[in-house]
Amino acid sequence: MRHDVSKRLNKALDAIPTIPKGYGRTSAASKLFGESTQVVHLWISAKTETKRGLPGIEKIPHVAEILGVSIDWLLTGKGPMHKHAETKELFINSELLGSAVQFTRDRLTVFGFEKLAYHKQGEVLALVYETLRDQGEVDDSFVDYLKRHIKVLK
Asked: 101-131: buried (b, 16+ CB within 10 Å) or exposed (e) per residue?
């Protein structure tokens, strides 16, 4: 089981352009998750079959959220990998997009958002838009995640 979770965790990390596939992967992933490199190394290395190398049950939702994958897929490999895979949005709500743009200007400029390349700003903006669409608001824990994400993107 641990080996399979590690493989799926690595597959999800492969989809993030700022996470290297080889050298530096553990360091970049640890910044993304807000965990130590030792802990993340256990999660992604698959060198042991002990449960010690799995993210704790209290961390699984956080890890899945950061990666944009479903908890079921991460733990079991069943169902769609991405939590919104079966409900693709066919249009963009311009009012919601305006709120996401305003949020990034008001709350993320201080963290270096404006210094990111445009495609990386787009990635952060998409995360804010999806969070506003799905949850209706952006809470402090998500802002903390965005700070870490911007740091990794720089």
From this structure: eebbeeebeebebeebeeebbebbbebbbeb
- What is the rounded distance in angstroms from the CA atom of residue 90 to the CA atom of residue 137? 21
Q: Please say whether the beta carbons of 41 and 110 come within 8 A.
A: no
Beta-bridge mates of residue 69: 82
pLDDT exceeds 70 at position 92 = no
- Give residue 27's pLDDT: 92
Amino acid, single-letter form, for residue 47: K
Q: Are 30 and 37 in contact (CB under 8 A)?
A: yes
HSE-up of residue 79 (Cα within 13 Å, Cβ side): 13
Left (φ > 0), alpha (ψ -120 to 50) or beta: where does 77 sit? left
- Nearest alpha carbon to residue 29 among 154, 152, 111: 152
If we measure between CA atoms, which residue out of 67, 25, 66, 65 comes closest to residue 45? 25
| Token reading at 31 | 């910044």
Q: What is the mean pLDDT of residues 122-132?
A: 85
